[in-house]
Write a structure and sequence with these properties.
By secondary structure, this protein is α/β, with parallel strands linked by helices. The chain is built from twelve helices and 15 strands. It folds into two domains: about 80 residues, GMP Synthetase, Chain A, domain 3, CATH 3.30.300.130; about 260 residues, P-loop containing nucleotide triphosphate hydrolases (Rossmann fold), CATH 3.40.50. Strand 8 and strand 9 form a beta hairpin.
């Protein structure tokens, strides 16, 4: 009477066609059951040729006959390397999606180039949504320059773990996760694309985000590995493009916009940051970087213009001191404009998804 262990041991004597290595150590044996002279066996092969399974079948049958197995149910599934990779990718995406099952909307905040205030906008947008009654999470996906710990006054703090998940930190009710919590603030991250992808995937899959209306994802500038990883691993509700008004910034911003369109991620709209300078002395507005360029670009691309934000000392100081202006000085004009941007985002999400965000408050 053969046992499962005896069947497996016998199969270790069966080499994979064309190799000296056996099919068990190759990981081809997926299921084994044995009882008396009967056995059920399932093999899965990744191969470049379509007949490897049939070449293998006689060797498996002969080996088990020697063990006394006379009634064998042998199933051999073959797939190409491309098919196996696609299935593995789908399984990983399903695991990521399941871990974010409690998140209603996932929004990426992106820019074509650095220095346009993307992270400042992402942070204040998250808190503006919170003031409108939403449950919000904020993910710092800017692997090479994770600034959110400083911008939120959370430097030096580390998340804890519970039930094999990372518990995000919180700032005034907004859940926050950043690579900056796991590495010293002055440590340079020198990673190639695959490492960036795995780090982002872990922050999506292994963080206990819980029930959220919105997860705001602060992407690094450009159109590289991080953007593609987020676009492929998540079903994004949409992307928001941040740019300054001048043509050199808008050119790169529109490249980012078109990247999202190519990977079938809806673009919720464009925000013009550093749009005019409000002089605290005389109250006049000065077009230091121009004005209206992002609005015009949004119209040309057929996407919504979500709003413009002026250059103000309060906005800059808020980021440097860990006191986002929407929280610290909600009475300021720039804070009111940020809340208006958040309201426009809610309207655009409803327009594009056909679903009113939960607990919609105006």
């Amino acid at each position: 009477m053969a046992t499962k262990e005896e069947v497996l041991q016998k199969l270790r004597s069966v080499p994979y066609p064309g190799y000296s290595r056996d099919i068990v150590s190759f990981g081809l044996v997926q299921e084994v059951a044995a009882c008396g002279d009967m056995a059920t066996l399932k093999l899965e092969l990744v191969t470049t040729e379509g007949k490897a399974g049939e070449r293998l079948r006689p060797s498996v049958e002969q080996a088990l006959r020697e063990l006394g197995i006379t009634k064998l149910n042998l199933q051999i599934n073959e797939k190409t390397a491309a098919q196996a990779q696609a299935e593995k990718q789908a399984a990983r995406q399903a695991a990521t999606d399941n871990s974010l099952a409690g998140v209603q909307y996932k929004i990426a905040v992106a820019s074509g180039k650095g220095g346009v205030g993307k992270s400042t906008v992402a942070v204040n947008l998250a808190f503006a949504l919170k003031t409108l009654g939403k449950k919000v999470g904020l993910l710092d996906a800017d692997i090479y320059g994770p600034n959110l710990p400083m911008m939120l006054g959370l430097e030096g703090q580390q998340p804890r773990s519970a039930n094999r998940k990372i518990v995000p930190l919180e700032r005034d009710g907004v859940k926050v996760m950043s690579l900056g919590f796991l590495a010293p603030g002055d440590t340079a991250v020198i990673w190639r694309g695959p490492l960036v992808g795995r780090a982002l995937e872990q922050m999506l899959r292994d963080v206990a985000w819980g029930e959220l209306d919105f997860l705001i994802i602060d992407l690094p500038p450009g159109t590289g590995d991080a953007q593609l990883t987020i676009s492929q691993k998540l079903v994004l509700t949409g992307a928001i493009i941040v740019s300054t008004p001048q043509p050199v910034a808008l050119s790169d911003a529109m490249k980012g916009l078109r990247m999202f369109q190519k990977v079938n991620v809806p673009v919720l709209g464009v925000i013009e940051n550093m749009s005019r300078f409000l002089c605290p002395e005389c109250g006049r507005e000065h077009d230091i970087f121009g004005y209206g360029g992002a609005r015009e670009a949004a119209q040309r691309e057929g996407v919504r213009f979500l709003g413009d934000l002026p250059i103000t000392t309060a906005l800059r100081v808020g980021g440097d001191t860990g006191a986002p202006v929407v929280l610290a000085q909600p009475q300021l004009e720039v804070a009111r404009r940020l809340v208006n941007v958040a309201q426009n985002v809610l309207e655009e999400v409803e327009a594009q998804t056909g679903v009113m965000p939960k607990r919609f408050v105006l």
